[in-house]
Amino acid sequence: ESYETVKRLDAKHGLVWLKPADMNNTYAFAMQRKRAEAEHINTMSDMVAKIEQIRKTTPDKNWLLGLDLEFAGRSDGMKPLQAAYKMDLDRPQIRQMDPGLVYNAVRDGFVDAGLIYTTDGRVKGFDLKVLEDDKGFFPSYAVTPVVRKDTLEANPGLEEALNTLSAQLNNDVITELNKKVDIDHQSPQQVARDFLRSKQLL
Predict the structure, then answer these.
(1) Region of residue 86 (left: phi > 0; alpha: psi -120 to 50; beta: else)
(2) What 8-state DSSP symbol labels residue 96?
(3) Which structural domain range is residue 175 located in?
(4) Domain annotation covers residue 59
């Protein structure tokens, strides 16, 4: 519905929304994969249940969540998330930090779970497990090509080419590509070129 609405409204401004990729660069919580699998934590609800278990059995131990400053204070951020999942947290359980540091904090065990972006290369690079948002709290940020109508008309074949590229992208693909840049220190240009060649798009 969001896509159709934006597509219709932007058409009045000469913008054409093409086919969205199966790729959602939204928020999620992540944990160390080995730990999440050992403790059978696959969803946000699983994590909340674990937090409650610790609260009841070992009240002297805190479950720590790593968040960026913006999300902690946003009107659509931490407070409504806690309400949606009935997640009780004391203030000392929330560690606020720069968004880029959250991944390292989860990897190194400084926090038990952290707020991440689902397509960040460090998810694969640090072997993190993205927890399923089983209550559908986080909005969808579907990646979609948007092109000026006059540009499409002046370049026959551009729409087909972009739709073909869009169909090749999903979270697993883009996370692996981001990993090559973020972790393996390859240039974005080289990673993009290699990917396009592998798909016979160059």
Answers:
(1) left
(2) E
(3) 2-22+142-198
(4) yes
- Compute the 3-state secondary structure of the chain and give helix, strand, coil in percent, each to the nearest 5: 50, 15, 35
pLDDT for 76 equals 84
According to the model, what pLDDT value does residue 149 have?
97
The CATH number of whichever domain residue 150 belongs to comes to 3.40.190.10
pLDDT-derived band of residue 20, with 50, 70 and 90 as boundaries? very high
148-172 pLDDT per residue, tens:
999 999 999 999 999 999 999 999 9
Yes or no: say if 152 and 23 are a contact pair by the CB < 8 Å rule: no
CB atoms near residue 6 (< 10 Å):
14
Longest dimension (CA), the chain: 67
